[in-house]
Amino acid sequence: xxxxxxxxVFTALFLAMLMAGAYADEQLDSITVTxxxxxxxxxxxxxxxAVNHSTVSSRISAQVIEINYDVNDVVPxxxxxxxxxxxxxxxxxxxxxxxxxxxKAQSREAIARQKEARAEAKRVKSLFARKLISQAALxxxxxxLSAANARVQALQAQSKSRQAQLTEAKVQLSYTQIIAPYSGxxxxxLIELGEMVSPGQHLMTGVSLEHLRxxxxxxxxxxxxxxxxSDPELVLLDGQHIQGEKxxxxxxxNSMSHSFKVRIDLPDKIGVIYPGTYGKMQFxxxxxxxxxxxxxxxxxxxxxxxxxxxxxxxxxxLRQIRLGRLLAGEQREIxxxxxxxxxxxxxxxxxxxxxxxxxARSAL
Length: 364
Fold this sequence. Notes:
The chain is of the alpha+beta class. It has four domains: 2-36 and 289-363, conserved putative lor/sdh protein from methanococcus maripaludis s2 fold; 44-52 and 209-287, Beta Barrel (Elongation Factor Tu (Ef-tu), domain 3), CATH 2.40.30.170; 53-85 and 176-207, CATH 2.40.50.100; 87-174. Helices cover 34% and strands 38% of the residues. It has helices spanning 2-19, 87-129, 135-174, 223-227, 348-363, and strands at residues 22-23, 30-32, 34-50, 53-57, 62-67, 74-75, 80-84, 177-179, 184-189, 196-197, 202-207, 212-219, 230-236, 241-243, 247-253, 259-265, 278-294, 299-301, 304-310, 315-320, 322-327, 331-336, 343-345. The radius of gyration is 42 Å and the shape is rod-shaped. Mean pLDDT is 85; it is low at 12-25.
């Protein structure tokens, strides 16, 4: 590391000694170093994650008889991911349906008996009113009617119970098919064909690529600044820029780092971007004045960055500078090495040719 640092210093000194003192006797286009206004950003490391990410599990004990998707397969919403052996559950549904049919037949018979008992009770009551039959006959007729009514009510209650059993059996039968809750991609398969599964056992993991968000950790002292910013933007390593949408702050700070987790929703259908992708999330927090020169005017010599500077006496010098960010309009931030008002050659190739020519003349 020390060797590299000394090498950079000696390279810079050599270039300065070699180029200083040359005079430009030809016209050379230049630009004056100024400060320009650019948007100010707070930038944080960001990781893309899926809004919908889940692992499906079994709710029954059964044998796997069909697996329709595997890792990296695209699964549409509502598709059958896998099936279990369902003969036992089908038989249960069929048995309850048969019981319901039997209950309906018994219910029809009981209703008929109820009507008969009601008519008989009415007839006996009329006869009793005319003193043609005894109290015992009237009581017997009323008892028969009460028994018929109770029989009908019992069968109605039994019918409701059968319907509840049928609903439960159908639900259990539906558990023999694992349905995709949303459209996504399979990331992990945890079961093999023919295996027995048990309730709660994990079967398959998937993520949806339709709804993504970026997650960043914002220090406590910058949280209010980030919350008041507008137009958050995710910048990926390949240079792709994605405009963020809704921002959500998790209302709890990390006890160790004292930072807050912030989620920024990304637009739907933004291309092939997978959860776990790394990028930079930048928040616009106002404007700032930055000293800049055109990127095209900068010369790169090994590890040294430099520009050709013209003095008032038309002295042409190659000067080392320290660079900052590359800004909009191919403007490069200058951190050190140039003062405001100095002139920089726009065409470094032309400046190098001119400098070499003037150095040759000076040598003669």
